[in-house]
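Task 17 of the worksheet. Students: predict the tertiary structure of the chain below and write it out as structure tokens. Keep your answer in the requested format; marks are given for formatting as well as content.
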Amino acid sequence: MPLKELLLFNNEGKHLTYSQYLSTNEWMSKREEIIKRDNFQCTQCKKKDTIDNYDPITKKTEHLWLIDNGVVYLGGDTASVNSVFVSADKHYHLEVHHTRYILNRLPWDYKNEDLITFCNHCHTEFHLHHKVPVYSGDESTELEYEPCPKCNGKGYIPDYFNVQNGICFQCRGEKYIIPII
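Model answer:
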């Protein structure tokens, strides 16, 4: 949904949460641009998204990577993709991480060099061990913003994706106790 539509639906004038901004078309477009720039893989561990295959008989989910070994041309206009599936130890999906925040700046209004692709596991690990700096609107001063202690500044808790997509109840998905937007 475009930001304009989101603002129209927000007719009560409530504060939009950070996670609501991340649901907009504007963010999805920026996110796709960054993931493509980073070759559709985590810049830390080099893992890609997995495909999750649920088996209703065993009631287990298998996590697989699709490995594309290139295109094999059969002649004429026909081609066959030479791909295989490789089993993964767990689910992986790609996320775009902000290396810094600027007060009142929309998530997609950052320079590309301020954004980096992490898999969900490296992203969680990063927030456990590092604090993302928050700067004033003019970018001249680093502000004293403390990340949410419940989600470590990630805005969501992966183990609780079954409840409101894992949005942290303490910071309401804002990553910080005081909102940055």
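Marker's comment: The mean pLDDT is 85. The radius of gyration is 19 Å.
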